[in-house]
Amino acid sequence: MEDQNARSISKVLACMDPWLRLGYTEDGLFRYLIRSDPALNRYAVVVSEETAGVLCVRYPWLRGPYLELLAVFPPHQGKAMGREIVAWMKDECCGVSNNIWTTASSINVPALSFYKKNGFTEIAQLPDLVASGFSEILLQKKCR
Fold first, then answer.
1. Residue 19 burial (C-beta neighbours within 10 Å; 0-12, 13-18, 19+)
2. C-alpha span between 135 and 107 (Å, rounded)
3. Against a cut of 0.90, is the pTM above it?
4. What is the Cα–Cα distance from 75 to 141, expressed in whole angstroms?
5. pLDDT by residue (tens digit) across 72-89?
6. How is the chain split into domains, by residue range?
7. How does pLDDT run across 15-53, given as a tens digit for each residue?
């Protein structure tokens, strides 16, 4: 991911929930998007030359790829873009694994609903993983 894309993406994410409520900063998100990490694939989602979201996939991770971050920016939400991204990820990843994993914050009810509608099943709650007092929900999508 280019620094310019990472900077604009981190600005938007820092103002969106759950990142806003969990205390993520623009600078911290920027560092996450540009740091050297050979297991983390980062994609800017671009529509008509406008950045519409971001996708970060960690592989390898446990027993399948881990959808570490997915965000569709507000002007592009409700247009099936998230569903298309998950379908693309399934096409790309399910040849190498039987599972796709992700987490969503318990406070992020829209994300949990989205993942469940897209075939993910809740596996476990992980309290205080990202921030004290908040739980992350581990979700699994079986490929077969």
1. buried
2. 8
3. yes
4. 27
5. 999 999 999 999 999 999
6. 39-142
7. 999 999 999 999 999 999 999 999 999 999 999 999 999
Place of tokens 């399934």: 90
Query: To which residue do tokens 């409700």 refer?
Result: 78
Point out which residues pair with 45 in neighbouring strands. 53
CATH number of 39-142: 3.40.630.30
Long-range interactions of 92-99: CB distance < 8 A, separation 24+:
93/57, 93/59, 93/64, 93/65, 93/143, 94/143, 94/144, 96/59, 96/65, 97/63, 97/64, 97/65, 97/143, 98/63, 98/64, 98/142, 98/143, 98/144, 99/63, 99/64, 99/140, 99/141, 99/142, 99/143
